[in-house]
TrEMBL record:
Protein name, as recorded: Indoleamine 2,3-dioxygenase
UniProt keywords, alphabetically: Heme, Iron, Metal-binding
Entry keyword Nucleotide-binding: no
InterPro entries the UniProt entry points to: Indolamine_dOase, Trp/Indoleamine_2_3_dOase-like
Organism whose genome encodes this protein: Echinococcus granulosus
Entry-linked SUPFAM superfamilies: Indolic compounds 2,3-dioxygenase-like
Length: 489
C-alpha cells in the first residue's frame, strides 16, 4: 500500500465523534454548503470545464486538456479547495476518456490531469476518478427559497449537455439532505442506548423511520411522471405572480454578480479585490437559473438518455474496451490510492489502473443505516460495500466504521423486554427494506430494461452497475438480508 494513503488510517477511538468531525454538516449533511472559490492555479482548469460541453461536441476537448498548465498543488490549502480540485479534475478525466463515446475511449489519462488527481485523491482518502463525491456531494448546493415547496439546488457542473443530468443529480442530493436529519437522530439514539433510556430510544427510532420514509419518497421521484413539477401536478401551489417573482429574483442575482465583474475582466484581480465573492461567468449564472427551473422544464428522467448518454461518464475504468484499466501518465506505479485492481504486479510498464465507476452506493447513507441497525450482509456483499467505502472521503468512511465498531443498538433491542422498542426498531428496518425494493424498481427501469434494448449502443455496461456488479442479483441479496434483520416482537 502506498505509505501516504496508509498513513490516513487513524488510531481506534472508543466512542463516536461529533458529526462535524466526520465532515457531516448539521445543516446540509454530507453535501458541501456552498461553492468554493478556486485558487488561481485551478482557474484554467475550471474555465475549461465551464466550456467543456462545446469542446466535447466538437471533439476538441482532449486537445484542450493536453494544453493545460501544471496545477500548483501547494495552493490547495483547505479541505474545500481540495474537494473542488478533485471535482474539476475528475470531471475533466471522465470527459477526456469518453469524448468519443463508449466504443473509442482513451486508454491514457494525460499527466496534467492524472498526477494532480492522484495526489489530491490520496490527501482526501478517496479515488482518482469521477464519483458520488464529485457528482453530488461537492457539486450540488441547497438554495434557500420560500416560493417553492420543493427543495431547489444549484448544480455547478454536469458531465455533458444532456439536460437529464439535473434531475438525476438533484434528486440524489435531496436524499442526501434528508440523511442529514437521520445522522443527527442516530447520534441521539446512541446517547439514549448508552444511558439505557428506552423511552427516548423509541421516540428517536420512530423519527428515524420517518426520515428513511422521506428518503424513499424522494427516490420515487425518479419513477413518477411530472415529478419535477411542485406538488406533483402542473404548477400547483405556485401562482403566476410567485413564478414571476422567483424568475425576477434569479435575474436580479445574475445582474448583481455580473455587473460587479464587468469592471474586473481579470479573474485573478477580481478575487483579490472581492475575496468574499465567487467570480461567476455569465454562462455559469445562466446555468444557475436553469437549474432553479429544471423541475419545471424536465418532466421525467428518460431511461434511454440515462443509459445511453449519461452512464458511460459514470462507468469508471473497469468495463468494455478499458476493462483492463487506464494508464495515469506520469504517476509512478508505486503510488497507489488503495483501491486499484488489475495487473499491477506484471512486467507491463506503465501499469493500468482499474477503478469502479460512480454510483449512489458510494454515499454513506444506506451503509450507515446498515451499520447502525446491525444489518449484516453476505460476505461477498460486505466485501463489495467495503470496496465502495474506498471511494468516499476519509471522514465519511470513518463514520461508517465507527458505527460498526461502537454502536450496539440491535443487541440493546434484542435484550430489551420493551415491545415498543422492538416495534420502533422494526419500523426502521422495514422502511429501509421498502427503500431497497423501490431502488430495485429504479434499477430495472433505468439499467436492466434499457440494457436489453440498447446493449449494442453501450456495450461496456450492459446490465451491470457502474460498480461492476450484476445489479439485480446483488440488490435482491441486499433486500433479503435486510428483511432477515427484523426482530420477533
Amino acid at each position: 500500500m502506498n505509505p501516504v494513503y496508509g498513513s490516513l488510517t487513524r488510531c481506534n477511538d472508543q466512542t463516536m465523534q461529533a458529526l462535524e468531525d466526520y465532515k457531516i454538516s448539521p445543516v446540509t449533511g454530507c453535501l458541501l454548503g456552498q461553492p468554493t472559490t478556486p485558487p488561481p492555479s485551478l482557474l484554467p482548469f475550471r474555465r475549461l470545464l465551464e466550456h467543456s460541453h462545446e469542446l466535447l461536441n466538437s471533439g476538441k476537448l482532449r486537445e484542450s486538456i493536453e494544453k493545460l498548465p501544471t496545477l500548483d498543488m501547494a495552493q490547495l490549502k483547505s479541505h474545500e479547495e481540495k474537494r473542488l480540485a478533485h471535482k474539476i479534475l475528475a470531471f475533466l478525466a471522465a470527459q477526456y476518456v469518453w469524448q468519443n463515446g463508449d466504443r473509442n475511449p482513451a486508454e491514457i489519462l494525460p499527466a496534467v490531469i492524472a498526477m494532480p488527481l492522484i495526489e489530491v485523491s490520496i490527501e482526501l482518502g478517496c479515488q482518482p476518478l469521477l464519483g458520488h463525491i464529485d457528482l453530488v456531494l461537492s457539486n450540488c448546493f441547497p438554495e434557500k427559497t420560500q416560493l417553492l415547496q420543493r427543495q431547489v439546488f444549484f448544480t455547478e457542473f454536469i458531465p455533458s449537455d444532456q439536460p437529464n443530468w439535473l434531475p438525476f443529480i438533484e434528486v440524489t442530493a435531496d436524499i442526501e439532505l434528508s440523511f442529514c436529519d437521520g445522522a443527527k437522530i442516530m447520534m441521539h439514539i446512541i446517547n439514549s442506548v448508552q444511558k439505557n433510556n428506552t423511552k427516548t430510544a423509541v421516540e428517536c427510532l420512530i423519527k428515524l423511520g420517518d426520515v428513511i420514509s422521506i428518503m424513499r419518497q424522494q427516490l420515487l421521484l425518479l419513477l413518477n411522471t411530472h415529478q419535477f413539477i411542485p406538488d406533483g401536478c402542473a404548477l400547483s401551489g405556485l401562482g403566476g405572480l410567485q413564478m414571476q417573482q422567483l424568475f425576477m429574483n434569479s435575474l436580479i442575482k445574475i445582474h448583481l454578480f455580473y455587473t460587479m465583474q464587468l469592471a474586473c475582466v481579470d479573474e485573478e484581480l477580481f478575487l483579490e479585490k472581492e475575496p468574499g465573492l465567487h467570480f461567476i461567468t455569465l454562462k455559469t449564472l445562466l446555468t444557475h437559473l436553469y437549474s432553479a427551473f429544471a423541475h419545471l422544464l424536465i418532466e421525467e428522467l428518460d431511461p434511454k438518455a440515462f443509459y445511453c448518454e449519461m452512464r458511460p461518464f459514470l462507468s469508471g475504468w473497469s468495463h468494455g474496451k478499458i476493462s483492463k484499466g487506464l494508464v495515469y501518465e506520469g504517476v509512478p506505479d508505486s503510488v497507489l490510492t488503495g483501491a486499484e485492481t488489475g495487473d499491477l504486479s506484471g512486467e507491463t510498464i506503465p501499469k493500468k489502473r482499474v477503478y469502479l465507476g460512480a454510483s449512489a452506493g458510494q454515499s454513506i447513507s444506506l451503509q450507515s443505516f446498515d451499520a447502525f441497525l446491525g444489518i449484516e450482509h453476505f460476505k461477498d456483499v460486505e466485501k463489495f460495500f467495503a470496496d465502495l467505502r474506498k471511494y468516499m472521503i476519509l471522514e465519511h468512511r470513518h463514520f461508517i466504521e465507527d458505527l460498526k465498531q461502537h454502536v450496539h443498538l440491535r443487541d440493546f433491542v434484542e435484550r430489551s423486554s420493551s415491545k415498543e422498542l422492538k416495534t420502533a426498531y422494526n419500523s426502521c428496518v422495514n422502511e429501509l427494506l421498502l427503500f431497497r425494493k423501490d431502488h430495485l424498481l429504479i434499477v430495472e427501469k433505468f439499467i436492466i430494461a434499457p440494457s436489453k434494448m440498447y446493449a449494442a449502443k453501450v456495450e461496456s455496461l450492459k446490465s451491470q452497475g457502474t460498480g461492476g456488479t450484476a445489479l439485480d442479483q446483488f440488490l435482491e441479496s441486499v433486500i433479503a438480508r435486510t428483511e432477515a434483520a427484523l426482530i420477533q416482537c
